[in-house]
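Hey, quick one: can you model this chain's 3D structure?
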Amino acid sequence: MKLCGGGRDEWQVATSGEIEDSGSTFREYNADATNLQDVRWVLDTLMSKTEVASATHVIYSYRFRQSDGSVLENFDSDGDYGMGLNLLKKMQQKNALNKLFVTTRSCYPGFAHLGSRRFEHAAEACFGATIDDSSD
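Sure thing. Here's the predicted structure for all 136 residues.
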């Protein structure tokens, strides 16, 4: 997916296909992010997309190296307890830097609680997301 703006001519956002499990649908996005301005811009722009804004939960984590050499990292689970932290831990394990990972989870009537399977779905899709050159 290509996003335009944010101080760049074009911003590439990798996306995954949807993962469905017991009434929950997961979709993942990842983008380069080297500062908080990048993180905020990509999040705001993704939230303008119907498929992201309408999700039950929009979970994200990011890590980037600052100019002083330290790593700034944070996450938000958006009410889906542990999701953001789990995603951040996967980023740390794989030493993913200068990235923003976003997971959306849409829960439909009658959805089943997934327990730790939801962590696996989010991490698998975020690290498997690929660049789609089409504009959205």
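One thing worth noting: The beta strands are 2-5, 8-15, 19-21, 24-32, 57-65, 71-76, 99-107, 130-131.
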